[in-house]
Specification:
There is one protein chain. This protein is an alpha/beta fold. The protein folds into 2 domains: 153 residues, Response regulator (Rossmann fold), CATH 3.40.50; 70 residues, Winged helix-like DNA-binding domain superfamily/Winged helix DNA-binding domain (Arc Repressor Mutant, subunit A). The chain is 47% helix and 14% strand. It is built from 11 helices and 7 strands. It has a 7-stranded parallel beta sheet, with helices on both faces. Helix 3 packs parallel to helix 4, helix 8 packs across helix 10 and helix 9 crosses helix 10. The chain is globular.
């Protein structure tokens, strides 16, 4: 694993897309060294995940990600002020991003999801298995939230105006009835396999529906689709 100091540059051959069954590569970003070690240690318990870099400064992470081309970035934003939130959108242009926070602050979570983050995990609220699942899901383009973050999202949704009077109404008009059913499952955090099971569809059919939803809503991933659907995107 490559550990990158703040004043160093990193150059690595561009990785090829992983073959089926190969490891998901991860770069861990966070100012707290002990936290980075803890997160890397949790990921090391899963043989299909490989941490290929650690970096302290979020504002340098884009350069590192361009060099290492990981499948997922774990961005730890536990510092006061969450200055690293500004890096989320730039990182999401290059790879999938999972954000780690000390709390399920609705404003920070909202900003991270709008910027394209595919996961929002609260420290102390996830196990090693749940962290690994979030990383694997992000590599597949799927969103994962810890229970506290999901509770915060549900509270946010309930505080929105009536969907028929919100920005979500015109979004629904763009989708077929089946796509609306799929989108309802996505908002609840369901994976494609769960959607397939519940709607009696094949996973391939669900993937096709999801891709059509992305195209119709003009989004790139599940988190952005949720924000658009719920009328919280900007």
């Amino acid at each position: 694993m490559l550990v990158i100091p703040d004043n160093a540059a990193s150059h690595d051959p561009s990785p090829q897309p992983p073959a089926v069954g190969s490891a998901v590569t991860v770069v861990v970003v966070g100012t707290d060294h002990a936290s980075r070690i803890d997160v890397s240690g949790l990921l090391a318990q899963s043989p299909d995940l490989r941490v290929i870099g650690e970096i302290r400064a979020a504002d340098r992470a884009v350069t590192v990600v361009e060099a290492l081309e990981p499948h997922v970035v774990l961005l730890d934003l536990t510092d006061p002020g969450h200055a690293g939130l500004a890096a989320v959108a730039r990182l999401c242009q290059h790879t999938a991003v999972v954000v780690l926070m000390d709390d399920a602050d609705s404003q920070s979570m909202h900003r991270a999801i709008r910027a394209g983050a595919l996961g929002y995990l609260v420290h102390g609220q996830f196990s090693a298995a749940e962290l690994s699942q979030a990383v694997r899901a992000a590599a597949r383009g799927e969103a994962r939230l810890t229970q506290r973050a999901m509770d915060t999202l549900v509270h946010l949704v309930r505080s929105l105006p009536d969907p028929d009077r919100s920005m979500a109404a015109p979004q629904r008009e763009r989708l077929s009835q089946r796509e609306i059913e799929v989108m309802a499952h996505i908002v609840r955090g369901a994976a494609n396999s769960d959607i397939a099971h519940d709607l009696y569809l094949s996973e391939k059919t669900v993937r096709n529906h999801v891709n059509h939803i992305y195209a119709k809503l003009g989004v790139r991933n599940r988190a952005q689709a949720m924000a658009s659907w719920l009328g919280t995107a900007v």
